[in-house]
UniProtKB/TrEMBL annotation:
Cofactor: FAD
InterPro entries according to UniProt: FAD-dep_OxRdtase (IPR006076), FAD/NAD-bd_sf (IPR036188), MTOX (IPR045170)
Pfam family name, one: DAO
Keyword tags: FAD, Flavoprotein, Oxidoreductase
Protein name (Swiss-Prot/TrEMBL): N-methyl-L-tryptophan oxidase
Amino acid sequence: MTSQSYDVIVAGVGAMGSAACWHLAQRGLKVLGLERFDLGHAMGSSHGLNRIIRLAYFEGSHYVPIVRRAHELWAQTGAEAGMQLLHVTGSVDLAPEGAGMVESSLKSCLDHGLTHEVLDGKEIARRFPAFHLPAGHLGLWQPDGGFVASEKAIYAHVGLAQSRGADIRTNEPLLDWSPTADGGVTVRTERGTYSAGRLVITSGGWITDAVPALASKLTTVRQAIGWFTTRRPELFRQGAFPVFILTVEEGNFYGFPLYEHPGFKLGGPHFAREPMDPRDPDRTPSPQQVAMIRECLARYLPDAAGDPLTLKGCVYTVSPDEDFVIDTVPGVPQAVFASCCSGHGFKFASAIGEILADLSTSGRSAFNLSPFSLGRLAA
Ligand SMILES: Cc1cc2nc3c(=O)[nH]c(=O)nc-3n(C[C@H](O)[C@H](O)[C@H](O)COP(=O)(O)OP(=O)(O)OC[C@H]3O[C@@H](n4cnc5c(N)ncnc54)[C@H](O)[C@@H]3O)c2cc1C
């Protein structure tokens, strides 16, 4: 059995944890990253090649400063790692006029001076003929949006962290942890006991095991994504087609231009709430969600409504107000956690890693984290 000591232990080396390992190791700290599975596994929330990054943020203007920093860091980290992590394709939020999404995205652009255009149905069809939308849909176009190569991003952060001495241990889950009398922590795994001055908990869908205070606040649900045969791939290639969020009567769907797969990727419906226990090893996507994705393609993107080439299931961790939870563990200031959840967290991971490093080293962040406090969910 091992017994070693570190400056910081990071529990969960997925999107947020890998970024935290890099930002901590970059500061010269001795870091241990513990991961339940192997890197690039398909059991959590970050697999499936890519994730949308939108700067026009209908979920709330307060996210924009953090996503701007994340955008900058994705480009920078990609360059340092020698991998293209950020792909700028432009983003378009599509919804019926008055439904709220385009209006909220527009507000975030106006609040933060983001370049944008509001497109009517005719203009959407002219620029992006792949969409066949109902009359009355508007689009909010933002040219800096795009996607992040999600699996590569984890590899990039881990590789960079290792290059600065981080110790990354896969297939070694944290079993339990406790604060110590000297203000540090002790962490136990099947292979040993480790001590550290600080603990960062980024265990995604499993976070309530390590932070019981979250147990009554977060739920985990199953989400489906699929890649479908397109009969006109030229309409969906990068340069011709943006990332998008689409609100229609069937729900909220999201999609990407073609990327490292012959099929067109569509996910959703975003607000589907089919509870799942992440401990259940079955990641088969729900047949109901797959049927809804196929229906969405047939009605609104008919040139990509071919047979599914790949279907995957994935875990969403959902908070009651769908905002993130980033805070210290109640009564244990040396332990911080981030549940950047509700299906929209990946784009922020590069910045959240930096935020977690700031919180662990100075107890402060340059960003206003009050919208993400655990206390707001107290009622
Ligand atoms: C289908 C789908 C589509 C999405 N689309 C988008 C999108 O387009 N844009 C966007 O911004 N966001 C999107 N999201 C949300 C985003 O992907 C998540 O917010 C993000 O991946 C969460 O990162 P995480 O680090 O919290 O979780 P993960 O990346 O899952 O990492 C958690 C890690 O902790 C490990 N772990 C668990 N327990 C332990 C333990 N006890 N000890 C050690 N390790 C442990 C897990 O194995 C896992 O590797 C999507 C999510 C899904 C599921």
